Write the structure tokens for this entry.
Amino acid sequence: MLFLWAAPLLAQTAPAPSSRLERRMDSGPVENRTDEHVVLARFSVEEPGALWLRLYFEELELGGDEASGKGSYLRISSMLDGASQVLRASSAAQWGYSSAYMNGDAVLVELIGAPRSGISRMRLQAIDAGFAVLNSICGATDDRVLATDPRAARAMPVGCTAWMISDCGRCFLTAGHCMSGNNLSVVQFNVPPSSSSGGLQNPPPEDQYAVDLLSRQFVNGGVGNDWGYFGCFANSNTGLKPFQAQGAAYVLANPPAFNPALTMRITGYGTDSGTANQVQQTHAGAYFALNGNALQHQADTTGGNSGSPVFWEQGGVAVAIHTHGGCNSGSTAANAGTALTNPGLQAALAAPLGVCNLPCNSSLTPYCTAKVNSLGCTPQIAAVGTPSATSPAPFLITASNILNNKSGMLIYSLMSAATPFQGGTLCVASPLVRTSLVNSGGEIGVENCSGSHSYDMRARIQSGLDPNLRAGTTVYVQWLTRDLASQSGPLGLTAALGVSIGP
């Protein structure tokens, strides 16, 4: 039988500092065929430097009959103080197939088979490793000040920072430990001040975005290997994606060669007292060290800054992800993060998933399916030119192979869809915008598919009539045409295009 563990729900405002780490160990099916208790499998679990460990099992099958005292069991022992926990079938279920908190950075796990108790098996999946709270204010005072950078968001409910980057999908980076256990599900922009007692206040729903779970890629591997990459869906109220609403993203670069004269800025949502608690603050400090993919800096941070961008001020680019505190009141230590040179992060950026997987080399993305019209023709949608917020050249959205001498209109939206509609598919989501009716023209005196439509989207983009149509926006367009003879509904539909508006 398989038992899947889940991250525990923590109602505390300041949970014990820890990291969820994958640990895959499998005893395989084992059996005691003797008349004595036998250790069927034994292994150690270690995380150097941890103050405590807690184990999570993906599978725990304990053979035998516990009620008669002939059941197999698991014994977990701290190598620091010798304390042990015994888990039998009933108590393992009560513990959610996890262990108690065991002191020290190493434990011994033993699967003990009762006499002639049949098959047993244990499969370890992950551990929680606890660490000491490290000071992350660099110097005698907290020098952070309130900020309003539109690129940085508060990551909830985990209480971290995420930031928008200039990849094709305008997605986000954060710390890997912020994404462990599916704890990051919402990002918030334009966060208001907290209450006077430090209670978090939320921005309106229009400034909150749901994370696409299919887009998530991350590693929680400690300093220098702690990174997360993900994207968000369009806002459910406005239809805008984060970049469309915020209008800015961080440009990424490799960190410069170490030079103590350079400064690194951290902007994020660290903890504080009163109204400044977990609202956006910023501070710049000295570049302290670069060791492989671990970058150190002396910008002030607190809990909640995990995932913040490490911004190289002189270069005007983001070069690392802040992940760990370590500063002291002097100048002999520093906070740390993962440099963007990390190979795993680079591989993830090169192979985006979910909503992050958008083409960079094309401003047009065909999608959806056209409805065959009453004469058996399949309408076609196409574009001529390049969508631009500034270019004087026309950008035409066209329809062809449609019924002649019939009216039609181009519709568009900031969200795509695939909704059954009059025997076809409506490919743009509500709220949608309707343009003016136009006639398809074509041959006169005979009904055929010689009609066509054309609409200059450039004029619409640059007219200012729709402020949502600006550089960085993706708009979804489709033609509707009159087809009164269609038995499934009097409208024809083309397929659709996703149009990314350039500068």
About this structure: The chain has three domains: 18-130, 145-356, 364-500. The chain is about 5% helix and 40% strand. Residues 1-16 have pLDDT under 50 and may be disordered.
